[in-house]
Specification:
It is built from 7 helices and 3 strands. It has helices spanning 3-15, 47-68, 77-96, 99-106, 110-118, 121-126, 128-139; strands spanning 18-23, 29-32, 35-36. It has a 3-stranded antiparallel beta sheet with strand order 1-2-3, with no helix packed on it. Helix 4 (99-106) packs antiparallel against helix 5 (110-118) and helix 5 (110-118) runs antiparallel to helix 7. It is elongated, with a radius of gyration of 20 Å.
Length: 141
């Protein structure tokens, strides 16, 4: 067994393998196999991990949209990006609450879809993000 293999086995046994953020025995935020992410203690995620996680999340979001909306692949790329952005932000269940916007997208009524997007608690929460996404939904650009 190589040093890396041995150390991996030891650390997984000693630290545990936790698939969510948790507080360690000292109260510091940690993730995975004892990876400190608590800023108070100098913890962080390296850019390579952030990039990998984002790539994973993007692939998962696109797959959810394709599985959930038969019309998704017929949209232009700009409108696909809007739907994915909202699903990423709200979760699929949250986005499904935009029933009138989804109906408008299915009918290709971009004006109505953008109005429905802006007439929401979500739009008030995310501000300029909603304005930008509604403009892309309306124009396709």
């Amino acid at each position: 067994m190589s040093l890396k293999e041995r150390l991996k086995a030891d650390l997984e046994r000693d630290e545990g393998r936790i698939p969510h953020v948790y507080q360690d025995s000292e109260g510091y935020w940690t993730i995975g196999v004892g990876h400190l992410v608590d800023k108070r203690k100098g913890g962080r995620l390296p850019d390579t991990i952030i990039d990998s996680l984002l790539e994973y999340d993007i692939e998962e979001t696109i797959a959810k949209c394709r599985q959930s909306f038969p019309w998704f692949d017929s949209l232009d790329e700009g409108r696909q990006a809007v739907v994915c952005n909202m699903v990423f932000n709200l979760g699929l269940k949250g986005f499904m609450g935009f029933r009138r916007a989804i109906e408008a997208i299915e009918k290709r009524d971009w004006e109505a879809a953008s109005i429905e997007m802006l007439d929401s608690r979500w739009a008030r929460q995310v501000g300029s993000r909603a304005v930008r996404l509604a403009r892309i939904m309306k124009t396709g650009e």
